[in-house]
Model the fold of this input.
Amino acid sequence: MAKTLNSRIPEGPVAEKWTNYKAHQRLVNPKNKLKLDVIVVGTGLAGASAAASLGEMGFNVLNFCIQDSPRRAHSIAAQGGINAAKNYQNDGDSIYRLFYDTVKGGDYRAREANVYRLAEVSNDIIDQCVAQGVPFAREYGGMLANRSFGGAQVSRTFYAKGQTGQQLLLGAYSSLSRQVQAGKVKLYTRYEMEDVVIIDGHARGIIAKNLVTGKLERFSANAVVIATGGYGNTYFLSTNAMGCNCTAAIQAYRKGAMFANPSYVQIHPTCIPVHGTNQSKLTLMSESLRNDGRIWVPKKLEDAKALQAGTKQGWEIPEEDRDYYLERRYPAFGNLVPRDVASRAAKERCDKGFGVNNTGLAVFLDFSESIQRLGIDEIRQRYGNLFDMYEEITDVNPGELACEKNGVQYYKPMMIFPAIHYTMGGIWVDYELQTTVPGLFAIGECNFSDHGANRLGASALMQGLADGYFVLPYTIQNYLADQALWPRLSTDLPEFAEAEQGVQKEIDRLMSIQGKRSVDSIHKELGHIMWEHVGMGRTKEGLEEGLKLLKALRKEFDENLFVPGSKEGLNVELDKAIHLRDFILMGELIAYDALHREESCGGHFREEHQTEEGEAKRDDEHFFYVGAWDYQGDDTKAPELVKEPLEYEIIKVQTRNYKN
Ligand SMILES: Cc1cc2nc3c(=O)[nH]c(=O)nc-3n(C[C@H](O)[C@H](O)[C@H](O)COP(=O)(O)OP(=O)(O)OC[C@H]3O[C@@H](n4cnc5c(N)ncnc54)[C@H](O)[C@@H]3O)c2cc1C
Done:
């Protein structure tokens, strides 16, 4: 029988659904909470906030992460800020507007009900974080400051210099530490979840590898929450931390949790360009820089050629010969168009030969105008640490005056290019954040929920913290309400033994291949296939070819991988090999999804489906749905597509317009 998906969206008007849900959902009484154990895998903003909240509520929480401290989760890297509809600027913001911008920004491929709830709880997040002592930037009078991010015409982004993620994570970590101290949360650092244990169709525990001893251990609980981040590193080079992986998510997928919209991958327009073949990661230059930085390439091809040859420098191109192409194409939003639009526009200019840098694969981000308008001190106040980071990596100081001509001061511009950054797709979850496996929940970047086909800047932190502090603590109770009737499950049950043996067998297999290729060399090849065939511009032929290459790469991995060392004790190469096995499957999932989605929307751009002006052309008649993929029992088998139709009650689906 064909599978179906039930998104469990509550009844009632969109703006009342969450209130209604909270009023009627089942609760767990305080005594029963003490009997219930919840596993939370991940200590990033989503995992830490969920673990701290569930602990505070009285549940017993087991909280896992692969790093040596929860504070090292990748969330710490977030720079620019977090959105909320406080309207402190009195510039016309509202919950509705944040909701609308997010649905529109996601190219009308997100669930209305989820996004409305996200906008609703956004304001609570700021209050919660302020109460924890998160040092958000403030105005002179003491009010919290805001700046603008792409896809919005209001300033709603709260920030702490260029270190917002770090400060928010420290806030969540302090709440978590309080629960650790109270004995309600037990932390398992340097543990990696390798499998989820399913008993009678419900998630009842996990198998985790102690990354220091190499031993597999079993953990049981009444529910399992996965908060393990995104799958951007499938592309090898990305702005993600190198430890980011999709192993927990893919293992959940293998065990029956469907995977939604994998092809919605975000390519961020402002990253430091690739500068060689030995690079292992890319660096983001925060979107906040687009508040005051202007993006341009030369108007004349001969200037572009001279810049590529190094015979001319950016500051030598006079104002009248610069093409501020975002301001030209999208006058209403200018440099603050959403990321997918900005990335594609950069690619279009570079494809036409106007790119800069010795590769021709870069555009300028220039602060000359804003420095003259506001002064270097003000600009440094806003972006000082980002300027320093850029200078450390490239040896160019974007705040340095290069020359003055005809009364115009020219500062040294940054060079930027799009790079893989975030994944909107993820484990399919219903309104309660529960996956297709009962008792298995997914939160934060690892679920697919709220961003549709493209995420707006500063909305990931908002979603991760919304899920962890304000949504899951309600919805998981609806599931746990009758779980207190169950006895605590023993990890001696055959299902645990079988899952552990399965993981051990896989580790033995990887160790025994003893081929000639390092994990990194195969991962780099994977990244190359993904970028070339499943990257910023996709075609049917390219995707079919990509899928062929991915299948061949799996064979190469299975036959020619070399993992040095032993399976006992610490073996980072072995851990990377496990991640790579899952990235290859993830790569295929992305390609299958991209191939079937015969339209362009958000981060998914099919070159066959574009307007004459090169804008994405959606096909709402045939693709107005969430595409969830169901594992068919074997990595080599093609997954099956299950559709969740989208239903909009209050937003009129239309072509995105950032021009006027
Ligand atoms: C450079 C950069 C800047 C960004 N800036 C912003 C910004 O300004 N605003 C914004 O809104 N968003 C930003 N983002 C996006 C945002 O940071 C992430 O989407 C968000 O932090 C993800 O949080 P998370 O809790 O879901 O996952 P993560 O923070 O990635 O945490 C994942 C957790 O899971 C654990 N884990 C992973 N796998 C396993 C496993 N198998 N077993 C056990 N534990 C595991 C890890 O140890 C970690 O604790 C940025 C992203 C990048 C890359």
Q: What stands out?
A: The chain has a mean pLDDT of 95. The longest helix spans residues 572-596. The two ends are 48 Å apart (CA to CA).
